[in-house]
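# nightly structure sweep
# worker-07 picked up a monomer target from the shared queue
# config: single-sequence mode, recycle default, output format = structure tokens
# input follows
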Amino acid sequence: MSRFFPIKGKVKMTFQLFQEVVLAIDLPAKGLQKGDVATIVEEHPAVDGEKGYTLELFNALGETIAVVTVPEAAIAAMTAQEVLTVRQFSAAS
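# output follows
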């Protein structure tokens, strides 16, 4: 579950370790697309000061297909209005 915390007049979303999230961007170098579901496996500061996360992505059988590090802006919380789907995955070469 995500939480919202006020930070000096701003509302900041934080994510929890092992939370499932959705990619908000395409990562073509890894064969990943906006909307792919990922699991947060590590939280860390990103290069520009924005919080970053290491994500693990799995295929439909639960096998790891990618581990990526992204800034917080590259992920979004899942909502009850979304439906999971399956797509063909082709790892970038």
